[in-house]
Design brief:
This protein has 17 helices and nine strands. Helices cover 57% and strands 13% of the residues.
Length: 332
């Protein structure tokens, strides 16, 4: 049975006298920093010179400095930059200033697992990874709740790495919902696999294939969009609230029967074999090497793929339909 930690397992006083340097102030950075600030912890934001986030962080009441200065002043350094920029920033602005006994933290294990960052053996290295986008994490926290998180320890030099990690998780609100004990390897590989096979890659490819099938069969693009894209949120909400059983309880018997009998025809053993190949490329580092090389070479293929997908007919049809849905604008 997986080990979970909650509020009673963590003690904020463990890090109450420490300076916590949050490197980056994007979606995750602002949520981590503001949640900890609200919990009375000493937080500083590390940014590069000229960062657009500088004034925003100051306006939010946080102390801000250059990455190197914040790293030098911090006991805990949390890396909340994009995976592709972490290694360079670490080498240039953090590695020269990190001291024995410090804690280096991450919210995703990519750079540690694939060894683009190799910390000295004199510091604790851990991970607290909230399982939600930063803006959602902040919203839930301000309402008195929290989002689940993951905790992993890569190096425990001090003997207190887990206690510090749990205190940090409590500071950002994750222990309110539960924190799962894991490893850098498991978090990295399952996270990448989930994104590629289901949450992003699998879902978008399935939606486009279904949309194209209906349009090519002569149905109106608008009807295809409603059936294959728009209604997906309704089903996902049911899955989120109560799992597959609750979703099936909530839909018609006709839809439920089609689920059982036709779903496996679309997602068959051949698809599962392809998923195993995707996982293998994650496990052996092939995907990481490909993505790192893509960034080193200027992201030309990435830019092309982004443009191709943005110009797909489903996006054009969807934009027109969404503009007529005033409730979507209201929700923004």
């Amino acid at each position: 049975m997986a080990k979970m930690y909650y509020e009673s397992d963590a003690d904020l006083s463990t890090i109450a006298d420490m300076t916590i340097g949050v490197i980056g102030y994007g979606s995750q950075g602002h949520a981590h920093a503001l949640n900890m600030h609200d919990n009375g912890l000493n937080v500083q934001i590390g940014l590069y010179e000229g960062s657009k986030s500088l004034e925003k962080a100051k306006a939010d009441g946080l102390k801000v400095g250059l990455v190197a200065d914040v790293a030098r002043a911090s006991d805990i350094i949390m890396m909340l930059l994009p995976d592709t920029s972490q290694a360079e920033v670490y080498k240039e602005s953090i590695e020269p200033h990190i001291e024995p006994g410090n804690t280096l933290m991450f919210a995703h294990g990519f750079n540690i697992h694939y060894k683009t960052i190799v910390p000295p053996g004199t510091v604790d290295v851990s991970m607290v990874a909230p399982k939600a986008p930063g803006h959602r994490m902040r919203e839930v926290f301000t309402k008195g709740s929290g989002v689940p998180g993951l905790l992993a320890i890569h190096q425990d030099v001090s003997g207190n790495a887990k206690e510090i990690g749990l205190a940090y998780a409590k500071g950002v609100g994750c222990t309110r919902a539960g924190v799962l004990d894991t490893t850098f390897e498991e978090e990295t590989e399952t996270d990448l696999f989930g994104e590629q096979s289901v949450l992003c890659g699998g879902v978008t490819a399935l939606i486009k294939a279904a949309y194209e099938t209906l349009v090519e069969a002569g149905y109106q693009p608008e009807s295809a969009y409603f059936e294959c894209m728009h209604e997906l949120k309704l089903i996902v909400d049911l899955l989120y609230e109560g799992g597959m059983e609750y979703m099936r309880y909530s839909i018609s018997d006709t839809a439920e029967y089609g689920d059982y009998t036709r779903g496996p025809k679309v997602i068959d053993d051949h698809v599962k074999e392809n998923m195993k190949k995707v996982l293998a490329h994650i496990q052996d580092g092939s995907f990481a090497k490909e993505w790192i090389a893509e960034n080193d070479e200027g992201r030309h293929r990435f830019a092309q793929l982004r443009q191709e997908n943005a110009s797909h007919n489903i996006e054009e049809v969807g934009k027109e339909l969404r503009e007529m849905m005033s409730f979507l604008q209201d929700s923004d």
